[in-house]
Amino acid sequence: MADTSFPLLTATAVLPALGAVATAAVPAARRNAAKWLALVVSLGTLALAAWVTLAFDPGGARYQLTESRAWIADFGVRYELGVDGIGVAMIALTALLIPFIIAAGWHDADPLEDTSPNRRWRPTQGFFALILMVEAMVIISFAATDVFLFYIFFEAMLIPMYFLIGGFGDRAHSAGEAEGAKQRSYAAVKFLLYNLVGGLVMLAAVIGLYVVTADQLGQGTFSMQQIAEARAAGDLAMATNIERLLFLGFFLAFAIKAPLWPLHTWLPNAMGESTAPVAVLITAVVDKVGTFAMLRFCLGLFPEASAWATPAIIALALVSIIYGALLAIGQRDIKRLVAYASISHFGFIVLGIFAMTSQGQGGATLYMVFHGLSTAALMLVAGFLISRRGSRLISDYGGVQKVAPVLAGTFLVGGLATLSLPGLAPFISEFLVLVGTFSRYPAAGIVATVGIVLAAVYVLLLYQRTMTGPVDKPEIERLPDLRPRELAVVAPLIALLIFLGLFPKPLTDIVNPAVEHTLSDVRKTDPEPALPEVEAAK
Predict the structure, then answer these.
(1) Which pLDDT value is given to residue 530?
(2) What distance in Å separates the CA atoms of residue 342 and residue 291, rounded to the nearest whole number?
(3) Residue among 162, 127, 135 at smallest CA distance from 17
(4) Secondary structure element (H or E) that encloses residue 314, with its range
(5) Distances in Å between the alpha carbon of 212 and those of 80, 296, 455?
């Protein structure tokens, strides 16, 4: 990989990291300055991400904007960055969502009005600094082409997320502040432990990869480029059992991060106890690192093992789709409902990845982007609603559309995008995943379609119970509609969902060439369509 004259990818990641340090250093008395600084830095990062997108040539080399420098030379570790179309799409999604997350959480870390000695201190600067630090680590993860470099940031992002969940959790807890603090602590620790266990297993696999390359190449390496070149030249051939064990180590960590059933149980707790913006950060940004890594590292490094594990992974994905949707239907908590819906959606993404077709993997990549947009729209509006009422329980609402029609309307559009209504962006990605799956695994495609029906059930029930009906609660009668800041957060997301639902070509043009490279890694081609035999005319 050739070095670029300007380290654009490094700059895109370093800017939010420096912004995090600067935001944290703002004096406590000037918390509004910290907010504005974080927002400006996030917009600057978005500008750099737009530069990355414009500089990327879909018809060019697989990895572009590359950077390669020696780092820990004695152990074969290099600072290597590069993006394909999938990486570009994920960096753009991350940089796009962070300004909305910051604007939506403008008052989430303000000091509490309670002046009792046991009040919870909420340092505003720390909240926004942690968000920017997560952004920096996620961007490096999407750009890293050195496995060890990826691993470092894959694990490091757990620390700021732990503090965002445990230290800046949702104030709207039905059992009171004391019980809420316990639940937040439990959710943060559970999130950390699950992901640390997956990370430790992955570390063993990363070390195993180094040992294998050192044994066969004479010097260990973590560079995906060097590994791919050695495999193409016939210099690197992993034993079947070794490759499968290494694959399982990587896949376990990514399946926890995604998350995939039965490794999903940390997500409802984490999203339920977080503020709405942090919940969006978890499921729309951080969790996407897991599914992205399945495409880049599982399929790229272990093609034979990926094919070997495909039947079992497809079965797990189908369970995630149905199980997540069924539990979403039964939820009484708005944010936990969205969390279980996301588990169902991640099942669709994993299904598309391991369908091993261009439609499936292209749809899975689009699904990652569109799920991020739709979940952000729905969850942020839900957060605005919860902050007004002070409750996450669905039963505490009803008739909201009569007193806050704009809030109800945006909530409906976010919900319709979540159930993949035609005309909105997620429909395209879900359709491609199902078509790609059905062309190779018809039975799995049929089962997955049940998830579409169940999605309609939980979204429409949620809207019916919260937004329709009579206004029979005094708290609802006084509910204000969306404020200008809140509308400025939600309106662009809805506009993007509609625009990309009608015209997804700009994104598919970037993604499709990268998907073709990924399929070539696993030596798969799209199955030939089964055409009915036509009798010759007599």
Answers:
(1) 64
(2) 13
(3) 135
(4) helix 303-329
(5) 20, 19, 45
Percent of the chain topping pLDDT 70 = 93
- At position 93, the amino acid (one-letter code) is L
Helix (H) or strand (E) holding 325: helix 303-329
Which amino acid makes up residue 314?
I
Give the global pTM.
0.90
Burial of residue 460 (CB within 10 Å: 0-12, 13-18, 19+) is: middle
Nearest to 368 by CA among 380, 351, 356: 351
**468-497: buried (b, 16+ CB within 10 Å) or exposed (e) per residue?**
eeeeebeebeebebbeeebeebbeebbebb
For residue 234, with 0-12 CB atoms within 10 Å meaning exposed, 13-18 middle and 19 or more buried, which class applies? exposed
Determine the pLDDT at residue 416. 95
Residue 409: phi and psi, rounded to 5, are -65, -45
Q: Maximum distance among all alpha carbons in the chain?
A: 94
Per-residue pLDDT reduced to its tens digit, 317-346:
999 999 999 999 999 999 999 999 999 999
Q: Which residue has the higher pLDDT, 107 or 504?
A: 504
Which residue reads 């969006």 in tokens? 280
As a whole number of angstroms, the distance between CA 507 and CA 480 comes to: 37
How many other C-beta atoms can be found within 10 angstroms of the C-beta atom of residue 20?
25
End-to-end CA distance of the chain: 61
Q: Determine the average pLDDT of the residues in 405-431.
A: 93
Q: Hey, what are 495's tokens?
A: 């506009």
Q: Are 187 and 270 in contact (CB under 8 A)?
A: yes
274 bridge partner residues:
169
